[in-house]
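Re-run with default settings, no changes from the original entry. Doing this only to confirm the output is reproducible before filing.
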Amino acid sequence: MYRHPLLESLHICFTLPIVVLDNDLDMLKAYPFQQDSCLQSDLRPHLDKVWRQKSLFPFTLLRTPKGQMLALYPFQNYLFIFGPFWSASPAQTLRPLADLAYIPQHCLAQEGLCPCQHITDVGHLLHLIHYFFTGHLHLMEQDQESLTQEIFEDIRKELSESLIQQCNLYEDQHFDFEFHLLESVKKGDLKEVRSFLSQSVTPKGVTKDLRSEKNYSILIFEKLSQLAISMGVDPVYAHHTRDYYMSKCEACLNIHDVLALRESAIILFTQKIGRINNHSYTVAKILRYIHQNLSQKLMVEDIAKQFNFSESTIRKLFRKEMNCSLQQYISRKKMEEAKVMLRNQNNVTEVSNSLGYADLAHFSRTFKAHVGLSPKQYQRSPIKDIL
């Protein structure tokens, strides 16, 4: 029987019924217990149709004439049913997020036997469910996702060309602004950065039109991420954060939102670098070295030689500041990277090799010790992103 404590937590947070069906559409679990009594036998053909079809959208919404709705979410070998619930959301606002189909009223039990919550914005509900299972915050249409990624890749390629050429129009102002901004961020001093931002987040003399502000923000996001990596921030975190802000920036409809987003990115990276700066100079350099060499076989002996310390000294220094051993930290960081790669459906052997493990069995044992699942079990897990 399918069970997962966080799925029950999701039910409690939503106060929304959840039913889990297997590949044959037999019930595995219901929250609350016996909630499947709301679903009548006449509903099964509609569920079967959703389960068998290959939709471009992750959700299908089934709607009764009275406005009751079920959100169907096929995920791996399970069909998750959320609802029923009430919503007055217009059909046209739901189309970009899900297929919409109508079912007869008798597919659900009578209202007295099947209480319904009212959902004001179904779109927000669907985004949250989708994030729970996948960790993705971007728009859920697969075609739109592909197009957006293509646009971002084009933008990055043009950073050294059109964007920099545009910045050259105001070379002196940009250089002065960016130099002081990045120096403030590099210190990790949030108070100084906030003082700097209170003056302006755009160099004086730059014409403020929406496209120009977006382009300049993208350039700043790129520079912030590279600065963060150079200061020891995890490259995966830095790149993910950069891409997230680029995505949000492209979606902004006015200059005010772009400026607010840019300020948010500057503050976030400053805070992250500030936490790194709280470490001693030596430990900060060790952390940076580890993050930049996760693909290598990292041994304490080699790290000690890299920084001209004895093994015993570097072990004591690291444990004192990080509250864990150097080898424990390396393993944890490698496993965090492994989880990201496994979520992206990379082959287990490829993941092991790319993280410097010569022995696949050793990698698998280490992964299971950290996560509680083998790499293949984790990759097949329907809710792998929460671990």
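The beta strands are 18-21, 27-31, 59-63, 68-75, 78-86, 98-102, 117-118. The CA atoms of residues 158 and 164 lie 8 Å apart.
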